[in-house]
Amino acid sequence: MRNEVSAWRTDGFPVDAERILRVQGYRDPARIRPRIRKIAERAAADIAAVANPDARFVRCTIESVSNGVLTLAGGHQFTCAAFDRLLANVTDVVVFVMTLGPEMDAATAQRFEASEPVDALFLECAGWLCVERATRMLAAHVQEEMASEGLGVTFRLGPGYDYKSGEDRAVWGLEDQPALFRVFGDAPLPVDLLESCAMLPKLSRSGLFGVAPRS
User: Are the C-beta atoms of 47 and 12 separated by less than 8 Å?
Assistant: First the structure.
């Protein structure tokens, strides 16, 4: 598995309509209008048909972590002041990119074009909930692959997120996205990186899982 790009996919699945409503700020079920609830239920069901989680991942050995700079085998480097703390006991990382696919972006755009902005908003919310679940599923898959080595996944880190660093918080900047994509070499990926460091399709995620011996 080390240094080899692997693929992982799963079929689409529905999400919980109640979670969509909570994320959108509807905290009191008794005060949710029937129309809004129906839109959430429709988005929760529709996501299974339009989202197709698809990921690529590669396991890399950590060469060093020093002064906020993570260096992987092959010379790939990333910078975040929190790395020294977060990666203190980590031996390897699994770098990944994941997307729900272009059909998801198209479905959201169609709802906006049909003047159904609430439908579009709720479907996109369902998409991000799907990304969260698919990420956990990918982590479980990676952990299963490494179980025979006595290794396990510890946590996920990603460009654009901030992490505790001493008494402050440190951001892993999006400007590291090109370096993360270079880890995959010439392997075809289901995600394109734009000059802005945003990704297409829109509902995509990049990052790494820490890998350490299981206690």
Answer: yes
* pLDDT tens-digit map of 83-130: 999 998 899 999 999 999 999 999 999 999 999 999 999 999 999 999
What span, in angstroms and rounded, lies between the C-alpha atoms of 55 and 13? 16
pTM (2 d.p.): 0.93
Predicted confidence (pLDDT) per residue in 152-191, tens digit: 999 899 999 999 887 889 999 999 999 999 999 999 999 9
Domain region containing 111: 6-213
Q: How many domains does the chain fold into?
A: 1
User: How big is the chain by its Cα radius of gyration, in Å?
Assistant: 19
Residue 129 lies in a domain: yes
Domain containing residue 18: CATH number: 3.40.109.40
Query: Is residue 215's pLDDT more than 80?
Result: no
**Residue 157 domain-assigned (yes or no):** yes
The 8-class DSSP code of residue 212 comes to: E
In a domain, 155, yes or no: yes
Q: Decide if 1 is inside a domain.
A: no
Buried b (16+ CB within 10 A) or exposed e, 116-146: eeebbbbbbbbbebbbeebbebbbeebbebb
